[in-house]
Design goal:
9 helices; seven-stranded parallel β-sheet; single chain; alpha/beta; Rossmann fold; globular
Length: about 260
């Protein structure tokens, strides 16, 4: 069912030249969400839904960085992922030019965390995002986030779990940044750059989150309840002034160009 939903989203992208009409919610901030390798639709409805339930009224854009539906291909196609990251960086810059005073946040899952990180590193024109949330990240745990943090005003929030079996496979086939035999961020957390320790927040899985839908596995951290009650606080951080009186927001969808 999830793949069918993702296929429908993809067909919509083709029919609309890769982007639905932007909603007025863009006036109240922007959050980009990137699914993992294969683009199987994990979090595609849950992330926007959870944020909205938490009171976020900005636009949530689902950035589709691949249509391969093949996780292994995407995990190993690093040049392709970097190309999509560059396209995302341009989209973020365009939004910043139109709404220079609005906060931009990014949430990403699995291999999508690599695309998100590289996009942030590639930002130009004085563009900076606020917070970055990494879920089940398949980047290597010692990836140097210094360049990304320099293009951010906030922090990197990492959710990791030792029970993520998918990331055990990643240790064999390679992380999204091309390392083998090393642990991923999503398994053990992120090693912060020296002098920037206060800007990296590692949060390990705990059993209390089972009631919110995250049992410690690879993709259930995108459960709508978990997004609403845990992840959303990093997006709503200081954004009360960005909220309109009422919201009729719908998530927008965009593909890499």
């Amino acid at each position: 069912m999830r793949i069918i939903t993702t296929l429908l989203i993809s067909f919509c992208l083709i029919g609309t030249c890769g982007c639905q009409k932007r909603s007025t919610a863009e006036n109240f901030g922007k959050t980009y969400y990137l699914d993992g390798a294969g683009n199987w639709g994990f979090g595609a409805s849950e992330v926007p839904g959870g944020l909205e339930q938490a009171g976020y009224h900005g636009d949530v854009e689902l950035y589709v960085w691949t249509l391969s539906f093949n996780p292994l291909v995407d995990q190993l196609n690093i040049p392709g992922a970097r190309l999509r990251a560059s396209a995302l960086a341009r989209r973020i810059e365009d939004y910043h030019e139109r709404y220079p005073d609005r906060k931009i946040n990014v949430i990403a899952l699995s291999a999508g965390t690599g695309v998100a990180t590289w996009a942030i590193e590639d930002l130009e024109r004085g563009t900076k995002i606020h917070n970055l949330v990494l879920l089940g990240s398949s980047l290597s745990h010692d990836y140097d986030m210094r360049r990304a943090l320099e293009k951010m005003t906030g922090k990197i929030y990492v959710y990791h779990s030792p029970y993520d079996e998918v990331l055990e496979t990643v240790k064999i086939v390679g992380t999204i940044d091309g390392k083998r035999g090393v642990s991923s961020i999503g398994a053990v957390g992120l090693k912060a750059p020296r002098g920037m320790e206060d800007r990296v927040v590692n949060t390990p899985w705990n059993r209390s989150w089972v009631r919110l839908g995250w049992a410690g596995a690879h993709t259930d951290c995108t459960n709508q309840k978990f997004v609403r009650y845990e992840i959303a606080k990093h997006i709503l951080d200081g954004s009360e002034s960005e909220r309109p009186a009422q919201s009729h927001r719908r998530a927008s969808v965009a593909s890499a160009k």
